[in-house]
UniProtKB/TrEMBL annotation:
This is DNA repair protein RadA. The keyword DNA-binding applies. Keywords: ATP-binding, DNA damage, DNA repair, DNA-binding, Hydrolase, Metal-binding, Nucleotide-binding, Stress response, Zinc, Zinc-finger. The lineage of its organism: Bacteria, Bacillati, Actinomycetota, Actinomycetes, Propionibacteriales. The keyword Nuclease does not apply. Belongs to the RecA family. RadA subfamily.
Length: 473
């Protein structure tokens, strides 16, 4: 007879589910303070796990049918782009984002478009009443005969709705509001979220239902709940956006059916959410006259090139310690570029307050925007406007060298399409020529330079330029 041991004491984090054999004040996984508490875990019977009947016989992989796992359009082209082609039957998709960013509006639009194609859709809301969702559907034009709506917070009731409606698409808003009877904890807790997600995904796989689950995020922007939630689902999407802007971006952080880090762009308004197929113009400023401290960068969001304007302002400081303020840019990257400019471009920046930002709420994390930021800083410091029609792209090293970036020709083609005529880019490794190498691409003049000082001197943005080597408009 198999032996069973008495329940053993263990300690579990209420934020992320991390477990340890002894109490600690700080979670070793999510670094939260005071979240580790003692829980009783009953040990199972000792010995081997007995064999059980299989659900389906194993077959050679070449005989497995792929027709059931084909992509189906969601009706939202930008979301199809992020997913790699559309919705896959039986797939579990987790959409996470900050409160008020528009997650419910986007999924209601996806549900309405799927129902418009004649495929039955079940929208389960646990955060709002059915009448509140109906009001949003009236405003956004999402009323469809095949779109079913249920307001439930109990997992058993949700499973009953699935059994009765038999949908091809299930939307659950949100997983933190659904509770499972007989499971310890309150809805939204680690144990509850794990059990609810596992049950929904199990139904999705067995009934071939595409399931889209809304998830919350913590204060630092990570997905709330146990990390196992991200492992259970097939696709993890992050919904990003600034509250002061209507522009929204959906980014794929995990995708078993398509590319990762692909993005989709949307415009959120009172009438609903619509796709933005050409978002570059949203991040470019409009200046009637040339002003110092601006430069245009070309960044890659997934496989899509986006143009964004970088602005900088440097002023003599009256404080003992100069200020360094950023918006939409990495503060540590700014500090590194300031050090490179002071060391390798002979710019005195230690006694100046520095402010750097992007236009339109864009967030630039691509190292290819380093050169544009350096050009904007030099332009503001020297008081000389950057020549019109110029884009700058390239990564800056600590030695002041310019490093090549990926998809360079694709970035330049996008800049040329939007009317830019001159591009400053990193040169290929090799001997430094007397004059910058020039080539033409889609009607654009592309100049290749080896280091940041040469690039600033070429654009006549150094404090002591050498005449006759710069770019003449």
């Amino acid at each position: 007879m198999a032996k069973t041991s008495a329940p053993r004491a263990t300690y579990r984090c209420s934020e992320c589910g991390w477990e340890t054999v002894k109490w600690v004040g700080r979670c070793g996984e999510c670094q939260a303070w005071g979240s580790v508490a003692e829980v009783a875990v009953a040990s199972g019977p000792a010995g081997r796990t007995p064999a059980s009947p299989v659900t389906s016989a194993a077959v050679p992989i070449g005989e497995v049918s792929v027709t059931e796992a084909g992509f189906r359009s969601s009706g939202v082209p930008e979301l199809d782009r992020v997913l790699g082609g559309g919705l896959v039957p039986g797939a579990a998709i987790l959409l996470a984002g900050e409160p008020g960013v528009g997650k419910s509006t986007l999924l209601l639009e996806v549900a309405a478009q799927t129902a418009r194609y004649g495929r039955r859709t079940l929208y389960v809301t646990g955060e709002e009443s059915a009448s509140q969702v109906r009001l949003r559907a009236d405003r956004t034009g999402a009323i469809q005969p095949e779109l079913y709506l249920a307001a439930e917070t109990d997992l058993g009731a949700v499973l009953t709705h699935i059994e009765q409606t038999r949908p091809s698409l299930l939307v659950v808003d949100s997983v933190q509001t659904i509770g499972a009877a007989g499971v310890e904890g309150v809805p939204g807790g680690v144990t509850q979220v794990r059990e609810v997600a596992a049950a929904l995904i199990r139904v999705a796989k067995t009934r071939n239902i595409t399931t889209m689950i809304v998830g919350h995020v913590t204060k630092d922007g990570s997905i709330a709940g146990p990390r196992v939630l991200e492992h259970l689902v097939d696709v993890v999407l992050g919904f990003e956006g600034d509250r002061e802007s209507r522009f929204r971006m959906v980014r794929a952080m995990k995708n078993r059916f398509g590319p990762v880090d692909e993005v989709g762009c949307f415009d959120l308004s009172a009438d609903g959410i619509v796709a933005v197929t050409d978002p570059s113009g949203l991040f470019l400023g409009t200046h009637h006259v040339a002003v110092p401290g601006t430069c245009v960068a070309v960044t890659m969001e997934g496989r899509r090139p986006l143009l964004a304007e970088v602005q900088a302002l440097t002023t003599p400081t009256a404080q003992e310690r100069a200020a360094r303020t950023t918006s939409g840019l990495d503060a540590k990257r700014l500090a590194m570029i300031l050090a490179v400019l002071q060391r390798h471009a002979r710019m005195q920046l230690h006694g100046r307050d520095v402010f750097a930002s992007t236009v339109g709420g864009a967030r630039l994390a691509d190292p290819a925007s380093d050169l544009a930021l350096a050009v904007a800083l030099a332009s503001s410091t020297c008081g000389t406007p950057t020549p019109r029609g110029v884009v700058a792209l390239g990564e800056i090293g600590l030695a002041g060298e310019l490093r090549r970036v990926r998809d360079l020709d694709q970035r330049l083609a996008e800049a040329a399409r939007l009317g830019f005529t001159v591009a400053v880019v990193p040169a290929e490794p090799g001997p430094v020529p007397a004059v910058p190498k020039e080539r033409a691409l889609d009607g654009m003049r592309v100049f290749e330079l080896h280091d940041v000082y040469s690039a600033l001197e070429f654009l006549r943005l150094t404090q002591r330029p050498r005449m006759g080597t710069g770019y003449d408009e």
